[in-house]
Amino acid sequence: GVDSSVAAALLRDDGYEVIGAMMRFWPDAKRVSTFDSCCSPDAAYEARRVADHLGLPFYLLDYRDVFEENIIQPFVAEYAAGRTPNPCVLCNSKVKFDHLVKKALMLGCDFVATGHYVQRLEGKSGPEFHRGSDPKKDQTYFLWGTPRDALERVLFPVGHMEKPAVRELARQYGLITAEKPESQDICFV
Description:
Oligomer: single chain
Radius of gyration: 16 Å
Helix content: 40-55%
Order of helices and strands: HEHEHHEEEHEH
Strand content: 5-15%
Number of strands: 6
Strand order of the largest sheet: 1-2
């Protein structure tokens, strides 16, 4: 989306060697229209186009099995038991900031960066999550389960910004995601 696209552009401009990546969650056998714009094949195409525009290599990483096991199955079990699951928290803690961070390290990357509206600040015991600057977009709640050792390896380049400023930067960079609508639904429901 626009937030991840701008995060990549900002890091590139700050001198980082940036690699674009997207995790594939959508199944082959099901209608992909059940997945919203954040994790659809169309979103993967847009991500690849953004990476090309910014001159970055791009990888589509197959996380279908990991997503099924860690997100969809627990969601269904919790829902069937009459509880209200929060798959986004699980996805961040068990997929993005566990499996993805480990994969990035295997590929020789030092960090994983996302477009989350969160700030990573150094505290007395090491890095900590702090609220993003935009009170309407703060996403710290969705990251509370992030493994402690992953905190050392994550960057949030837009966490100090407000959404309108991110969109304006996307326009200035000429990114196709600049006007992309928000995605706030559970991606697989």
